[in-house]
Design a protein that fits this description.
The chain is of the alpha/beta class. Helices cover about 40% and strands about 15% of the residues. The two termini are about 20 Å apart.
Length: about 350
């Protein structure tokens, strides 16, 4: 199958995601929710809409593949894909990359996120039956010739042990951060709230820490974030919120909260569910050096102002990755086109 035919089929798959309120999609999403309580219908709809708009648009697909000479024309290899399952359909980009490059995908889906990925590929086969010969779901990777694996820092070490003999991309856990100046408008702060709260903060593109200048007005920040207070109606999030409050009280950790988000000063990038770390900075140059030290642990840097020598995205955009926004900065398509 030619690259052009692959793109046409994938674009038609995107068209299938226009009517997520259909009985078919509602049944699929209800099943995904039953298997993973974090996957609310609204979270799934948001993830699938982002896939449709940013990954399955025909023009965007054509622009994405254009720099990769010979893509989908080389000998097909079996590529093992170990997918994450922290947010809905989070592993779709790896599957998409493998299929558009003409390789055979051996998919080890997360138990937390099988339903959406399986349904998307079922629809793709209905559109273009040739794809049924280009992937399979498996519980154990065998006979692969390359590997793309995503997991925690702990599982990443095991992945290296097992898969370093193959060409590979192995991703560990990362977090995203935001830089505030204190001059942000309420609209900008509200947009930042989407980067914090979307998918309950479970994704690597979710902001888990903010860097703020000395004397920052947290009262106003928390007031704006309170507009997301409906998040505590979700029992799993509320349980984490209550547990963390109790834990911080027991350990005499100082914190601020607005009923839906806990703020505490902490040097670490990763924060607990329903909490957000903050750290003060004095000068932009000092902050730049601080972030460069942790660049290998950071997925996105959110800022309404440009930051010298650092790539940033605008508040509200972290959960809208494009095709070339590769996880951990590893160019998946270049990797798949290298063998």
């Amino acid at each position: 199958m030619t690259l052009a035919a692959r793109i046409k089929a994938l674009a038609k798959l995107g068209e299938k995601l226009h009517n997520l309120d259909s009985p078919e999609w509602q049944l699929v999403m209800e099943e995904a929710k039953a298997r993973n309580g974090w996957f609310t219908l609204s979270s799934q709809q948001q993830a699938l809409t982002a896939i449709r708009e940013y990954m399955l648009d025909e023009i965007k697909l054509e622009q994405w593949v254009q720099p990769y000479e010979g893509l989908a024309s080389k000998e097909q290899k079996k590529v093992g894909l170990i997918l994450a399952g922290n947010i809905p359909a989070v592993g779709f980009h790896d599957v998409l990359s493998c299929l558009v490059s003409g390789h055979y995908a051996l998919i080890k889906a997360s138990d937390k996120d099988k339903v959406l990925i399986q349904h998307l590929l079922q629809l793709l086969v209905e559109i273009e039956p040739h794809f049924q010969h280009e992937f399979e779901f498996t519980e154990q990777l065998k006979t692969m010739e390359a590997v793309i694996a995503t997991g925690s820092n702990n599982t990443g070490r095991y992945f290296h042990t097992y898969f370093d003999k193959y060409p590979n991309i192995i991703r560990n856990h990362r977090n995203s951060v935001a830089i505030l100046t204190g001059k942000e408008s309420d609209e900008t702060l509200y947009n930042l709230g989407a980067d914090i709260f979307t998918y309950f903060g479970l994704g690597c593109r979710n902001v888990s820490k903010i860097f703020v200048p000395e004397g920052y007005n947290f009262g106003h920040f928390l007031e704006v974030m309170h507009q997301y207070n409906e998040i505590v109606l979700h029992h799993k999030y509320k349980n984490n919120f209550d547990y963390n409050i109790a834990l911080f009280l027991l350990n005499k950790v100082q914190y601020l909260n607005n009923g839906c988000l806990i703020l505490l000063e902490d040097k670490r990038l990763a924060s607990r569910i329903a909490s957000l770390h903050y750290e003060y900075y004095l000068e932009p140059e000092q902050l730049e050096n601080r972030l460069k030290e942790d660049v290998g642990q950071i997925q996105c840097i959110v800022s309404s102002e440009p930051v010298h020598n650092l790539n940033t995205i605008a508040p509200g955009q972290s959960q809208r990755p494009g095709l070339s926004d590769y996880a951990d900065g590893a160019d998946t398509l270049a990797f798949l086109n290298s063998f």
